[in-house]
Structures are given as structure tokens and as C-alpha cells.
Amino acid sequence: MFQRILIANRGEIALRIIRACRSLGVSPVCVYSVADKDGPWIEQADESICIGAAASKESYLRIERLIAAAEVTGADAIHPGYGFLSENAHFAEVCRDCNITFIGPSPEAMGLLGDKINCKRLARQSGTPVFPGTEGGIEDIDEAAKIAKEIGYPVIVKAAAGGGGRGMRVARDEVSLREGVGSAKQEALAAFGNGTVYVEKYLENARHFEVQTIGDRHGHAVHLYERDCSSQRRHQKLVEEAPSPGVDPRKRDRVCESAAELIKQAKYCGAATVEFLMDQKQEFFMLEVNTRVQVEHPVTEMITGIDIVQTQIRVAAGEPLPFSQKDIKPTGHAIEVRINAEDPNRGFMPQAGLIEVFTVPGGPGVRLDTHARAGYRIPSNYDSMIGKLIVHGPTRDAAIARMRQALKEFRIGPIHTTIPLHQRIMEHPEFTGANMDIHWVERWLKATG
Ligand code: ADP
After folding, report:
1. Residue 252 catalytic?
2. Which of 292, 314, 367, 402 is catalytic?
3. How far is the CA of 352 from the centre of ligand 1 (A)?
4. Is residue 263 pLDDT above 90, yes or no?
5. pLDDT bucket at 139, cuts 50 / 70 / 90
6. What would the pLDDT profile of 225-257 be if each residue is shown by its tens digit?
7. Which atom of ligand 1 is nearest to the CA of 275?
8. Which of 86, 168, 228 to mutate to test the pocket of ligand 1 (most atoms within 8 A of CB)?
């Protein structure tokens, strides 16, 4: 096991990693930017180092400073959390060159799965269902138009190196396809330095279904079942739950097994999420693989009883997975809501500033992952998420009831948060009846102004 782990992140995930370190008897080290010098999570670390100015580019994204901080503090591993450098293959490579273990996949596995075209190719080989579309990047626009006609419009043009929704264009006819390929290429080239784009079928009213997987260095890979994250706004997940309600257990098992097989084929060590869209007939199509721990990992922890972050650290240290597929038996239902410092009544405007009131919910089956507290000043430089409220109950209805009460107990002020929005979601028939698709929240918000 490692002696010390440097956490190349901030906020709630930094605190989550500190907790996992403590459970393993490992010493956690934090880095922080000037804007985070009073971050409440920092005092939980054994040591901390300031690595630069508020802007992420000057601190959390500075590879050489992170490596220097690890060397100065004697850390033998780095946990990247999510966001920032967590899916940066170059960072993983630099860590390896400096003899520091990157807690995540090898740069090779990350590169293979991070390129959407390569990932799709590997998925086809391992029996993971993918969208019909072009085999590889578009070389010839006439060929792409022919394939689009075969699979039928609408289609979507996507960037091989894509991320954050950039380099994507939906096309409903050949004219917009030809236009979309050109503009998506340009956008992808500017954003990722790689203009390769491909075409696949566009699914209109899909549900978001993702499989949590984890692999070790000894050739084992398992899945920890799935999460449904269909309640989204601008492609940002708002609510996540596990299991995905109403899915045929046989279909679910098949797709979960295929996801585990995919990461096994990629010789993947660490946690990965294989994301899918599911249509009304419960057919699955892979979207992409995220090669890091996800924000919404706690819902899976709640139903499986497995500590995902602790397991990431164990497998990175070379231990075999401490469980096999047959040991994983999900129980009950878990729901997570993201508490963002945003004002839902004013176009989700981000809220920075002092938290004066912070009264937290509790009781059986309630978990709160947050770095915030009364007296904490939210900086304006980073993501607006200040916490995640997670509940677990024997059934989905029981979990919803717990979430309603937990949200009622949760008081944050004077800054605005997404708590009132979540209270409305928990009452909405589209959600309570599990009739969500990935556009339902936006449709509803538009309709209610
Ligand atoms: P990124 O890496 O940029 O986030 P994804 O491949 O995850 O790109 O796609 C982002 C979002 O775009 C998805 O969550 C989904 O809402 C939408 N999307 C992507 N591909 C399709 C598709 N084939 N059909 C319908 N929606 C899609």
C-alpha cells in the first residue's frame, strides 16, 4: 500500500479521497490554489501545499507543480479525482515517468478508451452494443451521407476526441449533415487539436444508463451494476439513481456484463464508467467511457456496500480486486441530487460568497458528501457544485420519501442553491413515475418558464 497520496483536486471529491485514504491508513496530502486557502477539506489532510493562483490553469492544471508537490511531500501516488487532469493521458504518463503511481488507468488504456472511435471499435469486439454509424472517422463526405441515409436521419456528427459536448452536431437531413461535418470538424480541431469526426444514429427520447466497472492489474474486471442519470440540464446531470428503474433484469445483466468485458479487453486498471443511451424498447447504445471516478459514484456505493474510491486505491497499489462478480449483490434503491450554488429562479446563475446558514439533514439512509459549512466562502473560480445529498431505501418510493424529507431539513443561505429545484423534481410525476428521458427537465423548465 502507498505511504502518502497527493490529491490533485479540491472540494467534496478531495474530502472523499481523504476519507478513503484514512480507511486504508494512508496519509493524505492536499494541494490548493490561492482561492482555496481556507477550503475546509484542507485541514483534514496531513500536509498541504499552495500550488498557484485561483485560475485552474495556474494551479490545479499545472502538471509540473503537482509533481513537485508530490516530491516535496514524499507522496508515492496521486489521486486525480474527477475533472481537472483526471482524464489527461499525458499527466498519467508524466506521473509514471516520475515513479509516482497515478491512481487510474495506464496512459495507454486511457488513450484507447478516450478516443471515441477506437473505443467504439473495441466495444464492437467485446460485444458492447454501440450506435450504428460510420466505422471510423469521415474521410469522404459522400460516403458519410450514404451511411446516414442507410441508418436513417436524424444522425449526430461527433468528434473522436470529444468532451464536454463540443464538436457535436445533430443533422436531420443531408444538407445539415454536410454543413454539420464541416463545422464539427472545425470546432473539434480548435478544441482538441484533432478534427476527426464520425457519424452515428441520433436517438431522440433516450434514457441515460451507465455501468460502473472496475478492473485490476491481474486481468480481473467486474461491474457494480448501473445508474440512471436521465435528469439533466444542458448535459449536466442533476439527479442520479441506482438501479435504473423498470429495466428488464436480463437485459440489464447482459449490458453490464458487456461493459465489464470491454474494460477487461482494454487491460484497464481502476474505475471506469461505460455510458449508454437506452431507447423505449430497452435497447442500449454505448456513448463513451469515462476513465475516472464519477461524481455520482455514491449511489453505487449505497446499493453495493463497496467503497469505490478505496477500491481504486487498492488496485492502483497492485492489489487484486477484493471481490468477484458473484459477491456483488445490490440491495435497495439510492438517489443522489447535486447541490449546486446556482439560482434556479435566475437562469441558474452561479452564486459565489459566504455561506451563513448550513443546517444538514440526517437520519437512516442519508449521506451528505460536501466540503461546505457555515462560514465557508464559495470562490467564483470553480464548478458550482457544493455537495451531493444521497439517500438509500429499500425501494425507489422509500428512497424518494427519504429524499423529500432530507431536502426539507437541508437549509443553506443566504446564497441560492438547487435545493428548491430538487424538491420540485421529487414531486414531479415524470420523476416519481420513472418516465424520465434526458430532455425531460429542460422541457419542463421551459414549459413552466
Ligand atoms: P461528451 O464527451 O462531449 O460529453 P458524449 O458522447 O458523452 O459527449 O455525448 C454528450 C451528450 O450528447 C449525451 O449525454 C447525449 O445527451 C448526447 N448524445 C451523444 N450522442 C448521442 C446520440 N447518438 N443520440 C442522442 N444523443 C446523443
Report:
1. no
2. 292
3. 30
4. yes
5. confident
6. 999 999 999 999 999 999 999 999 999 999 999
7. 7
8. 168
Of residues 222, 301, 205, the one with CA closest to residue 260 = 222
133 CA closest ligand 1 atom index: 23
Q: How many CB atoms lie within 10 A of CB 135?
A: 10
Q: In the chain, what are the domains?
A: 4-103 (3.40.50.20), 129-201 (3.30.1490.20), 207-448 (3.30.470.20)
Record the cell numbers describing residue 281, joined without a space.
424498447
Does the CB atom of residue 209 touch ligand 1 within 6 A? no
Determine the residue of 205, 277, 288 to mutate for testing ligand 1's pocket, defined as the one with the most ligand atoms within 8 A of the Cβ atom: 277
Contact 370, 387 (CB under 8 A): yes
In the reported structure, the alpha carbon of residue 325 is separated from the centroid of ligand 1 by a whole-number distance in angstroms of 29
